[in-house]
Amino acid sequence: MKRISFILTAFLCCGMLLQGKPAKNLILMIPDGTSLAALSSARWYQRYNHPEQTRLNIDPYLCGTVLTFSSNAPIGDSAPTTSCYMTGYPSRAGWVATYPTADVKNDILPTDTSKAYQPLMTVMEAARITQNKALGLVFTCEFPHATPADCVSHSYSRSKYQWIAPQMVHNGVDVLIGGGSQYLSDADKKYLQAEGYDIVINDIAAMKQSSNRKLWALFAEKDMSYDIDRNADEEPSLAEMTQKAIETLSQADNGFVLMVEGSKIDWAAHANDAAAIISDMLAFDKACGVAFDFAEKDGETLVIVVPDHGNSGLSIGSSKCSNYSTLTKDELFGQISKYKTSAEGLIKHLKTTAPDDLKAVVADLTGIALSNKEYQQLLQCRDYQRSALTDDERMKGSDMTKVVSGILDAHTCFGFTTGGHTGEEVFLAVLDPDKERRMTGHHNNVELNTYMRQALELPESLESLTAQYFAKHSDVFSGEKYVIQADKADSTVMVLTVKHKKKTLEIRPNTNIVRLNGKDIKLNSVVVYVDRKKTFYLPQSLLALLHS
After folding, report:
1. Per-residue pLDDT tens for 259-283?
2. Are 128 and 181 within one domain?
3. Which helix (H) or strand (E) holds 409?
4. For residues 84 and 445, is the Cβ–Cβ distance under 8 A?
5. Are residues 117 and 20 part of one domain?
C-alpha cells in the first residue's frame, strides 16, 4: 500500500495528467511579455469602444495560471521561458533550447553540470521526427528572435542570428510567417527552393494565394509593425497569418504543431507604450479567435494560450493621477482611445514634420494639445533634425523615444514600474478536445511542457531524443580519426571531418546536410556546434552512416 501511495504521489507531483485520446494537432499561442494587467487593459479598452463586446475571444477558455522562470532567477526573458515550454528545462537568460550552466546557490531546480550547453530536443522537433507532424511558426518579430527560435533551434546566445537563422531554415518548419526578410540569406533561399517551398517576401496576396504545403512568407526586413501602425496593404494581421498557417498545416495527414506569438506586446511593454500594448493584445486575441474556431470545429486540436513572462509592471491607474482609484471609464480610457499610433509610429511622423506643424500633427494623431513645455522638449530632442535649434544645442537634450513616450504616458493614467520583464505568474487558457485532461489551476513552465508531451502522446521522451540526435561528437566518433578546423572559405565556421577507411564524412554546424565522400546527405535534425565546449552535437546514427 505504501509503495502504491508513493507512486501515485510521484505521478501527481511530476505533473502527470490523466491521458485520454491524443490530440492530433497542437496550437501554442504566446502573447509575449503579457501581464494580467495587459489582458485587463485590452478587455476594458474593447468594452469602452465597443460596449457590445464585453468579452475577449480567450475569455471562455481561461482556466489557470503558470509560474515561469529562468534556471537561476524568478524573472525570465523570452529565450529561457519559452525554451522551458518547448524542452521541459528552464535555462539561463538569453539561452535558446539549451541546457544551462549551473548556478548552485541560485538554481531554482537542480542542474546537472555534465549537461551544460547541451542542445535540448523541443516538442516541435520531436513531433516532426517521431510522428511526422507538420510544423508552423507565426509571429510579428524577425524570425530568428527568441520565441520562434526556441521552437526549432539551439544556442546559448539568443543574439547569434548567424547560427539560429540557418538552423530554423534547415529544421523542417513547413509554414513560417512573420518578419525578418533580411535574415534569410541567399543560401537559405536556395535550400528552401530546392525543398519545394514557396518563398514570399512582402506580398500579402501571394501568401494568401499559395496552395503549397510548404511556405515561408516574410514581411518587413526586421520586425513587423505594431498593429496600431500597421498598413493593411503591406502587412497582414496576426489573425490573417494564423488563418493561413492553419489552412495550410491542417492538410497534413498526421496533424501539426503550430506556435503563434504576439511578439510585440512585449516590445510595447518595454517602451511603456500602453496604446501599443492594447492594440497588439487585441490583434493577438483575434488570432486566438481563429485558432479556437478551428479547434472547436475540428475536435482534435489542443489550443493553449499562455504568455512567457510579464513585462513593465503595467497597472490600470497610477499615482501620477489624483484620485486615480475613482476615475471613470472615460477618464481612464478616453484619452488613450484617441491614440492612432504607437510612440514609435508618432516619432516617424514627427521626424519629417516641420517645427511649426508639430502641435497640429500631435493633436491629429493623439488628441493631445501639446503644452509649451512639451513642445520645447520636442524641439530640444537631439535626433529631431528639423528643429530650429543648432546641433550643439540639441545634443544636450534627450532622444525622441524618451520624450515622445513620456508625453504619451503623461496624458494617461496607466502606470509602469519598469521598462523590463517582471516575475509575476501569467494567465493560462486551454481548449482541450479531452475535457478530463484539460490543464486547470496553477502550474509551472515545466509542467506545461509535460502536458503538451502527454497530450500529443509522443512515443519517445524528449530526453531520449536529445541523447539520440544531440550526442557529443567525441562520444559518437570515439575511436575514429577526426579533426575540427576552421572552414577555408569562412574562418568563423568550424568543420568536423571524420575518416574511416575510404570514407570521409564532413559535418558543418547549423544545417541538416552532411557530406559523405562529397555527396550531400540530409539528416532528420540539425547539427549544432558549441564553441565554448569545442563540441559538435549531432545524431548518433552518423557513425552507422560512416561505416555503411
Report:
1. 999 999 999 999 999 999 999 999 9
2. yes
3. helix 400-410
4. yes
5. yes
Identify residue 448 by its one-letter amino acid code. Answer: L
- How would residue 5 be classed by pLDDT, with cut points 50, 70 and 90? very low
C-alpha cell at 231: 498598413
Average pLDDT of the chain? Answer: 95
357 and 451, same domain (yes or no): no
User: Are the beta carbons of 304 and 26 closer than 8 angstroms?
Assistant: yes
Would you say residue 6 has pLDDT above 70? no
Q: Report the CATH number that the domain containing residue 477 is assigned in CATH.
A: 3.30.457
Tracing cell 540557418 back to the chain, one arrives at: 166
Beta pairing partners, 421: 311
Please give the average per-residue pLDDT across 473-487, as a whole number. Answer: 96
- Ramachandran sector of residue 317 (left: φ over 0; alpha: ψ -120 to 50; beta: rest): left
Query: What's the CA gap between 341 and 337, in Å, rounded?
Result: 10
Residue 325 lies in a domain: no
Let me know if residue 321 belongs to a domain. Answer: no
Question: Is 539 found in the same domain as 424?
Answer: no
- Tell whether 326 is covered by a domain: no
Give the per-residue pLDDT at 19.
53
Q: Give the separation between CA 173 and CA 388, rounded to whole angstroms.
A: 52
Q: CB–CB of 337/49 below 8 Å?
A: yes
Containing domain of residue 48, as a range?
2-315+420-467
Q: Which amino acid is at 342?
A: S
C-alpha cell at 350: 514627427
Please tell me whether residues 245 and 286 are part of one structural domain. Answer: yes
For residue 2, what are the CA distances in angstroms to 7, 246, 327, 431?
Answer: 9, 48, 59, 36
26 DSSP β-pair partners: 257, 302
From residue 543, alpha-carbon distances to 7, 480, 481, 540 in Å are 39, 9, 12, 6
Cβ density class 462-473: b for 16+ within 10 Å, e for less = beebbeebbbeb
364 and 482 share one domain: no
Amino acid at 169: V
Query: Is 70 exceeded by the pLDDT of residue 10?
Result: no
248 and 127 together in one domain: yes
- Give me the sign of the Cα torsion angle 385, 389, 390, 392: negative
Stated length of the chain: 548
Per-residue pLDDT tens for 109-140? 999 999 999 999 999 999 999 999 999 999 99
First to last CA, the chain: 52
| CB neighbours of residue 36 within 10 Å | 15
Q: Are residues 262 and 355 in the same domain?
A: no
Could you tell me the CATH number of the domain that includes residue 74?
3.40.720.10
Q: Can you tell me the mean pLDDT for 438-467? A: 98
Q: What is the DSSP letter of 202?
A: S
- Show the DSSP H helices in 50-115 as ranges: 78-87
The model scores a pTM over 0.85: yes
